[in-house]
Write a structure and sequence with these properties.
By secondary structure, the protein is α/β, with parallel strands linked by helices. It contains 26 helices and 23 strands. It binds adenosine-5'-diphosphate and magnesium ion.
């Protein structure tokens, strides 16, 4: 083995698991069903935890009440029914001559799993049962099953790595460990793409040692450095890919320089402005409020991107209510100042229409140059393009986009349509970016080049209120520049949030709704989330509206908004609510993002525990948008601990970013990364919570390697990136 040239990591991805000893067709199938196809998959399946058998916990040392992990061999198993009719499986285990009893209630299948001779680890609390120590319903990790595996006693003697075993596929943790050990032996020495200097600079152990150290540590002290190295590699690969994508984009860019003068941001609202000034300046001067410091700073960052020859590729993060819309508007105007068109995409029709209406109001009176009209200038034209804009109306918008008669188009994903072409698309702003996929972002961006007479790369600004922890943003949006609105407009009062768990508390919530409405303000009531279907959800919203209108909210004007309504109806309801003809709006989550009605001061969220934390924060953000004190009521008891934690977190904090950190803790990062990560996810070991420091180091190194071209001189490192991109992308990224 030692004669072999060191192997590249990617080579392990080419050895199927069936080529390993002891793995026949049945095992192969079982492993495949767990997503484990190659030797690479096996060696990057990392232990969940370890049992240190070198420092044995003697069964006799265990105290009643201890939480313990106990290793033992099953000596006997009996199953019966208790007098209450529950199934009970009694298991006896022995370790070094000491015995212990384990009881399983309502898990009759344990009798088949834990037959005599099986060795397993039991995690649980030690209790006293009629004078003997016992564990009840512990977590079980079968280490050695009975199905003809090799029983290598020496392996049970040291440190035992425990793998996510699968009862369903019939692979025990112990077998998995065996396959992985075999994989490592077969792989032999692995090539290390980081040379000694780099390893020293970043305190990294050598790669082969890292794999052995994490899977087969001789000492628990081997694990941490091994893990550090492997986590570093994961982050480095990911950040290299992001940096490469970014560089490719820049190399091939046909960007435009939009005119921008930072002084235009420093205006006094309400003063007089000459029509000669830039549109940005005229707009800000005429606007009803002054920019916050954060808005000004962010607009300067955006302006510099807009003025540069490289296309902007920027993410704007700002908590709910921080005032992203005005930033979007000013950005679009910078583009209009250069004589080009802008597109503004929102995730829902309700939001697109709200934006279009607001834009028309805010831009009224602004003029653009248009040689085709008499006098050479005309007012800025804003048009809406959503799924419901049809027929002649739609054709008119499309032709306006083509001939330049429309300056700004606001729309939903209808903007992505193939027949949507521009004369000269200069800037794209996407609101609530988290609702769109990476692909949609790319399609809209490409419109500038592929669907525009002037083939240029549009500048792109994506905005999101979903607060993403910094580390996660580096992973998810590492190819974007980032601006943050970290300040709320002045005069905002914190929304008072309470959790109404009891019926009297709930009654006082409804009382407050009545009081606020009596004072001329408005309220939202959010109906429970129904996973079943939008239709069922709509039905329950209809019922809830009727119930409230005849009971708690009798005498008030109660409206209804749900996803099954026609767009025209939705519009009508929203405008009645804005106008105050509807005082209370009973709605499903259709209002979740972006809806802006400043007079709304209460939101009551029914069955609040059913919503995710980010969603709750978004919903709450529908109020507190004016000067009045606003309130949020969360109704209903939470049936589980996680639900309780979420609601408590929401009561405790109004800060979206703080809540995002809590969310990451509660849900883990899987959900966050899962859907959005393109291609095969490489983050198998890294934790965004624990490993922020390593992430920073890896990112810095990745940027250095890409910008200094050191990567080209390191074909081994480039080679392993191929594990995570498909061929097409590899060609695009790696051609030199
Ligand atoms: P979001 O970031 O959630 O999209 P919006 O852009 O909808 O926030 O702004 C929230 C509310 O704050 C709106 O009613 C808007 O008019 C108002 N607003 C935005 N910027 C300012 C500011 N600088 N001063 C006062 N009010 C502002
Ligand atoms: Mg918004």
């Amino acid at each position: 083995m030692s004669e072999l040239a060191p192997r590249r990591l990617r080579a392990l991805g080419e050895i199927g698991v069936s080529q390993l000893r002891h793995i026949g067709p049945k095992r192969t199938e079982a492993l495949n069903s767990l997503g484990l196809h190659t030797v690479f998959d096996l060696v990057t399946l990392y232990p969940r935890r370890y049992i240190d058998r070198t420092r044995r916990v003697d069964l006799s040392d265990l105290m009643i009440g201890d939480e313990a992990a106990v290793f033992g061999e099953v000596t006997s198993v009996t199953s019966r029914r208790t007098r209450q009719g529950k199934s009970l499986v009694d298991v006896s285990i022995v370790d070094h001559g000491e015995t212990m009893k384990i009881a399983f209630f309502n898990q009759p299948w344990r009798a088949g799993q834990l037959v005599a001779g099986v060795q397993a680890i039991f995690f649980g609390k030690v209790s006293d049962f009629r004078g003997t120590r016992q564990m009840t319903n512990p977590v079980v990790d079968v280490v050695v099953g009975t199905s003809g595996e090799e029983r290598d006693a020496s392996r049970v003697g040291g440190i035992v790595a425990l793998y996510p075993a699968s009862g369903k596929a019939g692979v025990t943790s112990w077998e998995m460990g065996g396959f992985i050990e075999e994989s490592l032996k077969r792989a032999g020495p692995l090539l290390d793409p980081l040379d000694e200097r780099l390893r020293r600079d970043h305190s990294l152990v050598e790669r082969t040692a890292a794999f052995w150290g994490i899977h087969l540590p001789r000492d628990m002290a081997d694990v941490a450095p091994a893990r550090r190295r492997l986590v570093f590699d994961e982050f480095l690969r990911l950040q290299l890919l992001l940096a490469l994508r970014r560089r490719r984009l820049e190399e091939s860019a046909a960007g435009v320089r939009h005119p921008f003068d930072e002084h235009d941001l420093d205006v006094t609202p309400g003063s007089l402005e000459s029509e000669e000034s830039s549109l940005v300046r005229q707009f800000l001067t005429a606007h009803r409020f002054a920019l916050t410091r954060a808005q000004r700073r962010v607009l300067a960052e955006i302006g510099r991107d807009m003025a540069s020859a490289l296309p902007m590729h920027r993410l704007l993060q700002g908590d709910v209510g921080s005032g992203k819309t005005v930033v979007a508007l000013a950005t679009l105007l910078m583009c209009l100042d250069g004589g080009r068109q802008g597109a503004f995409m929102a995730p829902t029709e309700v939001l697109a229409e709200q934006h279009a209406a607001a834009l028309r109001g805010d831009l009224a009176g602004l003029k653009v140059v248009d040689a085709s009209v008499l006098g050479g200038e005309r007012e800025v034209v804003v048009q809406l393009l959503t799924g419901r804009v049809k027929g002649k109306e739609r054709l008119a918008v499309l032709s306006g986009l083509r001939n330049g008669g429309v300056d700004i188009v606001v729309g939903t994903h209808a903007l992505l349509g193939d027949d949507v072409r521009f004369r000269s698309l200069g800037t794209v702003v996407i609101d609530e970016q988290h609702r769109f996929g990476v692909e949609q972002r790319a399609v809209l961006r490409d419109k500038g080049r592929a669907h525009s007479d002037e083939a240029i790369d549009a500048d792109l600004l994506v905005m999101t209120a979903t607060p993403i922890p910094r580390t996660a943003a580096m992973v998810l949006f590492g190819d974007l520049d980032r601006s943050v609105l970290d300040e709320m407009p002045a005069g905002r009062r914190a929304i008072a949030t309470s959790w109404a768990r009891s019926s009297p508390e709930e009654q006082s919530a409804w009382q407050l709704v009545r009081d606020e409405v009596a004072a001329g303000r408005r309220a939202y009531v959010i109906c429970p989330l129904v996973e079943a279907s939008e239709r069922v959800e709509a039905t329950s919203a209809v019922a809830e509206r009727t119930r409230l209108a005849t009971n708690e909210l009798r005498g008030l004007s109660v409206g209804l908004l749900h996803g099954q309504m026609k767009s025209v109806e939705k519009d009508e309801v929203m405008s009645q609510f804005r106008a105050g003809e509807i005082q209370v709006l009973v709605a499903t989550v259709v209002i979740e993002v972006g809806v802006d009605v400043a007079q709304a001061s209460v939101i009551v969220i029914e069955d609040a525990w059913r919503f995710g934390l980010a969603q709750l924060h978004q919903l709450r953000g529908r109020v507190g948008r004016g000067d009045a004190q606003s309130y949020c009521y969360l109704l209903g008891e939470a049936p589980n601990e996680e639900g309780r934690s979420r609601l408590e977190a929401l009561v405790a904090s109004n800060d979206g970013f703080a809540l995002a950190e809590v969310d990451l803790d509660l849900r883990g990062e899987g959900t966050l990364l899962g859907a959005r990560q393109r291609g095969r996810s490489d983050l198998r070991l890294a934790s965004l919570r624990r490993d922020e420091g390593i992430l920073n180091e890896a990112r810095t190194l990745a940027l250095e390697l890409v910008s200094s071209d050191a990567l080209t001189a390191n074909p081994e490192l480039l080679d392993e990136l191929r594990l995570f991109v498909d061929d097409e992308e590899a060609q695009y990224l790696f051609r030199s």
